[in-house]
Amino acid sequence: MERYRLLKEIGNGTCGNVYKALNLHNNEIVAVKKMKRKFYSWEECLSLREVKLLQKLSHPSIVKLEEIVKENNELFLIFEHMDCNLYQIMRDRQRPFSESEIRTLMSQVLQGLVYMHRNGIFHRDLKPENLLVKNDIIKIADFGLAREVTTYAPYTDYVSTRWYRAPEVLLQSSAYSPAIDMWAVGAILAELFTLNPLFPGESETDQMYKICTVLGTPNASIWSDGVQLPHAINFNFFQSPPVNLSEVIPNASLEAIDLVQQLCCWDSRNRLTAEQSLRHPFFHVGTWISCPLQDPLSVKINQTTDSSPKLELSLWDFDNESEDCFLGLSLAVESSIGKPEAYHHSHHSGKEFLFCSGYQGHSEQLVFWPLTAPDNVKTDTPVMTSLASSYMVNSQMSLPPFSVSEQSSYACISPLRPNLMDCHSFGPMMSLSSPIQQSLFFQ
């Protein structure tokens, strides 16, 4: 450790103390974690779970272990230095984060979790204190409680700080999955909006009470396996109806509310994975992306010898309540390449899709209209469709006109006959609103 000068203590945990230190060889600031227990051999050091896992992991969203030092039977782990943790930022913040700031932070955390879970590792102790921040970069840290998926149950029942602990862990289930990380992500996401924990229990029993008062009491149809867990520990669920999460997190968009609900749900099998979460509309609001999402929107371009365009319409419902349903649509069209002379029109054509945040307070309006168009197709008279204008009315964002050349290999768009999209044929979920004056039909 003669190469490092300890500057000050910046953290104190169960397994060790963390210091800000200076590397005297290159003047780099690092973080040094001094383990509290003694280590008498290198084999003992390298068998430490945190060391084994961090040696396997290398990702921009995971804190980097730079060096391991053993000196006088003491073990020092040298990490890259980060400015602070997410808890410190939330504690000192005077106003809530903007939704774009939350998207930036949580997308990085989820990317790190995708990498971890794909490599068979789940963290088990995700909380704001274990998310380290430097400028706009956030990284997952502290793998002392992490486990490999291939290890066998039973797992220890004490994992994660109580406020971010999944209900199956609170009920002492011995066989849980990486879905416990996703519960913690949902709780952290909600906290970023309000700067207050979503489930601030003062004990394990109070923690279950806090969860029940927000999500409502589970039954066999909601959590078939979970309702059996309380019997083993002589616990009874608190009887409470679910609350409207929009009232608990009033500054969150409906996309954010939907994501929290899909992460903090009773049955771990129904929680979104990290990969699915990154494909959720919350992370694609008002942004152009180069290709369509696969879930819940799936646009399949089938290139065959048929010269007719391929059209796919995807529908999904954001809410289960019949009186408060939101309908999302995805429309995409691209003709197949059947003729050599048409090849130059589509070989270099790009696809662009737009996700709009426009259905909050507009339950009767169609919201998502991703459209594909070749970048190299030019026309003298661009056509602004009524759907494009509806985009700008609903989302209050600028949108370039969607133009179609008659000579292009893409399908021509003509007015829809009024009776072809009668609202009654789609049931009470959908109705065309006044901003859409002219519907579109793909021939």
Automatic annotation (TrEMBL):
Pfam families cross-referenced by the UniProt entry: Pkinase
Boundaries of every Protein kinase domain copy: 4-283
Catalytically driven reaction(s): L-threonyl-[protein] + ATP = O-phospho-L-threonyl-[protein] + ADP + H(+); L-seryl-[protein] + ATP = O-phospho-L-seryl-[protein] + ADP + H(+)
EC number: 2.7.11.22
Entry keyword Transmembrane helix: no
Lineage, broadest ranks: Eukaryota, Viridiplantae, Streptophyta, Embryophyta, Tracheophyta
Annotated source species: Platanthera zijinensis
GO molecular function: ATP binding; cyclin-dependent protein serine/threonine kinase activity
SMART domains tied to this protein: S_TKc
Keywords tagged on the record: ATP-binding, Kinase, Nucleotide-binding, Phosphoprotein, Serine/threonine-protein kinase, Transferase
CDD domains referenced in this protein's UniProt entry, alphabetically: STKc_MAK_like
Keyword Transferase: yes
Name under which the protein is recorded: cyclin-dependent kinase
Family indicated by similarity: Belongs to the protein kinase superfamily. CMGC Ser/Thr protein kinase family. CDC2/CDKX subfamily.
